[in-house]
Amino acid sequence: MDRSKILFKLVDVSFYYVPERVALNSVSIEVKEGESIGILGPNGSGKSTLLKILDGLLFPQRGKIFFEGKELTEKNFEDPSFNRYFRRKVVLLFQNVDAMLFSPTVRDELAFGLFQIGYSDSEIENKIMECSRKFRIEKLLNRSPFQLSEGEKKKVALASLLIIDPDVILLDEPTNELDPRSVRELLSYIKELRTAGKTIVTATHDLQMVNGFFDRIFVMNEEKKIVKVGDYETIFSDREFLKEVNLI
Ligand SMILES: Nc1ncnc2c1ncn2[C@@H]1O[C@H](COP(=O)(O)OP(=O)(O)OP(=O)(O)O)[C@@H](O)[C@H]1O
């Protein structure tokens, strides 16, 4: 891992789902390899939109986004080798995990990414066993993902992303829907990923997550802008600012 390497660079990025109504407003940021970034902001401030842009699912109408120096455009994703490279490296846990689950069983859901990479059947089985133990979803393997509780779905979705061992993990409200023990386990797992040098970008409202989890925090406001970037102490020492941006 090279902590000085810039992974993502956004230059004056704006995004509109509908004309005239900005959803992400002139965002210029960099994310370095191995960083853990928190995105905080009130409802509708553009956090999910920013994550989808980082994941190459939405493309800005204004400004540019680069990943390892290559611009993320629809055209560049048409190149199968770049597409494969990027999708192997960068994953996004959606806020609404229903959008991510599509296989008949949890086992198939976990196998899908490994199968695409080209692992053998026995390697796939071993990885499924290891991963399902880690996420305590062994008992769900033969169930349909659609018949699970919201928290179970979230664990399955996260496990199916992490099983391919990506380098960059984008998380949209990862602790929502989880019970207290699952939250503790998830947070300790995210810490492990961080220690292992993964780059992690997390949008969250969960103030439990905020202290000690992030190298830097990006604060967004109702104008869909990033209005402050800093470490936990810098951001949370300014109570007036936190009230102003509707975070407390
Ligand atoms: N599919 C869509 N079509 C039109 N507008 C959208 C769509 N998705 C989001 N928006 C709008 O874009 C803006 C940013 O939304 P986004 O979901 O990125 O915010 P967020 O900070 O993730 O919110 P939350 O904390 O509620 O999840 C909001 O004004 C929202 O209404």
From TrEMBL:
Membrane topology listed for this record: Peripheral membrane protein
Keyword ATP-binding: yes
Main location: membrane
Keyword S-adenosyl-L-methionine annotated: no
Alphabetical list of Pfam families matching this protein: ABC_tran
Keywords from the named record: ATP-binding, Cell membrane, Membrane, Nucleotide-binding, Translocase, Transport
Domain ABC transporter stretches: 8-247
CDD domains: ABC_cobalt_CbiO_domain1
Annotated Gene Ontology cellular component terms: ATP-binding cassette (ABC) transporter complex
Family indicated by similarity: Belongs to the ABC transporter superfamily.
Protein name, UniProt field: ABC transporter ATP-binding protein
Source organism: Dictyoglomus thermophilum
